[in-house]
Design goal:
Residues 13-61 have low confidence and may be disordered. Among the domains are: 2-27 and 84-212, no CATH class; 304-507, no CATH class. Helix content is 49%, strand content 4%. The strands form three sheets. A three-stranded antiparallel beta sheet has the order 1-2-7. A two-stranded antiparallel ribbon has the order 3-4. The chain has a two-stranded antiparallel ribbon with strand order 5-6. It has 572 residues and is mainly alpha-helical. It contains 27 helices and seven strands. The longest helix has 26 residues, at 2-27.
Length: 572
């Protein structure tokens, strides 16, 4: 077996060397992309950063760059042509291949998500992980049967296994040269069993750069200065985007039969994949990116409150509220909802930990789907997860809530807070509402120029929700809530509103909000920062979102029909 191990290392190093030049070449054109996120992001939830209030124009507060309206350039953006499987994809694919779930020991070995380049250290981690998984598979009859179903000592068994399993693992048929390379393990002179050979072949597959990475290198269909992805590359890209998994039998068959050569064929497959429950994962992770529910953002920092003042907010409330948001996002997408439903749907997923705040009854420890009062609870911005997070420990924060809505959801630059004003705090006074205190703090120069028009108004409209997201008609300071404010959806014009329903209806119809949402999907799906080359597809998706009947799933599928998805830039 030792000779087989040495042969495995030589075999894989040769494969890595053959791929390394391409990896380096691809990485040089990746524009700083760091894996499944957008500019500067790391991991499914995106990058850390502010959530509005100080973001430059077009960045939405954290990581997502949306090209300016009606300012697009022809061409395909440069990006990595050999991205690496993300951790989520790696774990899902292993489970799909063998029916086992990689443990933390394996996931730790493969390291963090990256732009695809492999160093000696990271590749050695994958090699060790491959050994652990191969040992587990070969020692489990059910898992082993998913790899090999014949007697490895029989004449054609190993060749047949290499071709059949390789088609799944490499997401394409193997070449004759690749089959011959894998069969070299069966030609070693030292005594070894056929089971040893089969195990070594499996380990070689799992440590192969072709398995670990997602090559998009076809050159047989030039399109101007770009190349069209081949059928196998499209099938893989599609399934990893929408399922984090391997192509299923129908998608693999479409690739085998050259049925993914047109945009409409790809779009049809995308819609089929999005109708499957397996797409719920991407629906959730995309919306976590869109809303910047990420490490370091307000979403995960402001998670405790004064339980003496707000006894309904218990230790389990925060996690239940955040899980509800994931369920809400997934539910909207998987049930054919559109952008407007994110802002207007009264659907909630209530547990015993959140029921008291919503004013409903539930003793369930698992989420129960129910409809809340549509006038008081339209959309995700009226859910406990958002309202309690964008508050202070013992009071509401119209500034935090308003800055997120204006700077993130509407993508209107809100300006940079004046550090001296922040340090000075709220002027002393006998305030009967939180709103009055905030107006005293921000109603004078230099704060007023940004706060009066952009930051405060959306937060004021939401003052009927207390610090933990419960409904209030009277401010804890003693005064009556005044939720009327002049809202600007573009940073220029104003509309007077008093209710959350009015505000959410306005956001749902806002071209700014629709464009940022479309741009967020393009960032997420393209696996790189947006450029002016993406502007045209963002324009089209934004125009589609203006139609209330246009579903989010349709937006997701329509991007897969675009040149940005189906082509790669030559020379990268």
């Amino acid at each position: 077996m030792q000779v087989i191990r040495k042969s495995l290392s030589v075999f894989l190093l040769a494969g890595l060397a053959g791929c390394a030049g391409e990896v380096g070449k691809a990485s040089s054109g990746s524009a700083g992309s760091t894996g499944p996120g957008v500019a500067g992001a790391a991991g499914p939830a995106g990058s850390a950063g502010s959530t509005g209030g100080s973001s430059p124009s077009g960045t939405g507060g954290s990581g997502i760059v949306v090209p300016p309206t009606s300012n697009c350039a022809p061409g395909i953006p440069a990006s990595s042509q050999i991205p690496r499987l993300t951790k989520v994809q790696y774990a899902t694919v292993i489970n799909s291949l063998f029916g086992i779930t990689p443990g933390n020991d394996v996931l730790t070995l493969i390291g963090a998500d990256s732009d695809g380049s492999l160093t000696d250290v990271t590749w050695n981690g994958y090699l060790s992980a491959a050994g652990l998984i191969a040992t587990q598979v070969m020692g489990n009859a059910t898992a082993k049967a998913k790899f090999i179903t014949c007697d490895a000592s029989q004449a054609t068994c190993l060749t047949d296994t290499i071709k059949t399993f390789g088609r799944k693992a490499f997401r394409r048929p193997l070449t004759d040269a690749e089959v011959t390379s894998f069969m070299r393990f069966n030609t070693l002179t030292q005594t070894h069993t056929s089971a040893d050979v089969a195990s070594a072949i499996l380990e070689a597959f799992l440590a192969s750069p072709t398995f670990i990475m997602v090559p998009q290198l076809a050159t047989d269909s030039p399109q101007g200065s770009s190349f069209k992805l081949n059928n196998f590359e499209v099938a893989t890209k599609l399934s990893l985007l929408l399922w984090n998994d391997l192509p299923d039998a129908m998608l693999a068959s479409a690739a085998d039969n050259n049925q993914l050569g047109t945009a409409d064929q790809v779009g049809t497959q995308a819609k089929r994949l999005l109708a499957d429950p397996k797409a719920a994962g991407v629906a959730t992770s995309f919306h976590q990116r869109y809303a910047d529910i990420s490490t370091g953002s307000h979403w995960v920092n402001n998670n405790t409150h004064d339980t003496t003042k707000y006894p309904s907010f218990q230790p389990g409330t925060y996690n239940a509220a955040m899980q509800e948001l994931d369920s809400f996002f997934s539910d909207v997408v998987m049930n054919g909802g559109g952008f407007k439903d994110l802002l207007l749907s009264p659907t909630a997923f209530v547990t015993k930990d959140t029921a008291p705040i919503y004013g409903v009854t539930s003793s369930s420890t698992t989420p129960v789907k129910m409809a809340l009062d549509a006038t008081k609870r339209p959309g995700f911005l009226t859910r406990i997860g958002f309202l309690s997070t964008f508050s202070h420990f013992d009071s509401t924060s119209p500034i935090l809530r308003g800055a997120f809505i204006t700077g993130r959801v509407l993508n209107v630059p809100t300006g940079t807070p004046d550090p001296n004003a922040v340090k000075a705090g709220i002027p002393q006074g006998n305030y009967t509402t939180q709103r009055a205190a905030v107006e005293a703090l921000t109603g004078v120069s230099p704060c007023s120029s940004c706060h009066t028009l952009k930051v405060n108004p959306p937060g004021f409209v939401l003052e009927h929700y207390d610090a933990v997201g419960g409904w209030q008609d009277k401010d804890p300071l003693g005064g009556t809530i005044n939720s009327t404010a002049d809202i600007s959806f573009d940073g220029v014009t104003k509309q007077t509103m008093s209710t959350a329903s009015e505000l959410m209806t306005g956001i749902a119809a806002s071209p700014n909000a629709q464009r940022f949402y479309a741009g967020a999907w393009v960032n997420f799906a393209a696996n790189r920062p947006s450029t002016l080359n993406d502007g045209c597809v963002v324009d089209q998706l934004t125009a589609n979102l203006a139609d209330p009947s246009y579903s989010i799933a349709s937006m997701m599928a329509d991007f897969t029909k675009s040149d940005s998805f189906l082509l790669r830039t030559a020379g990268n």
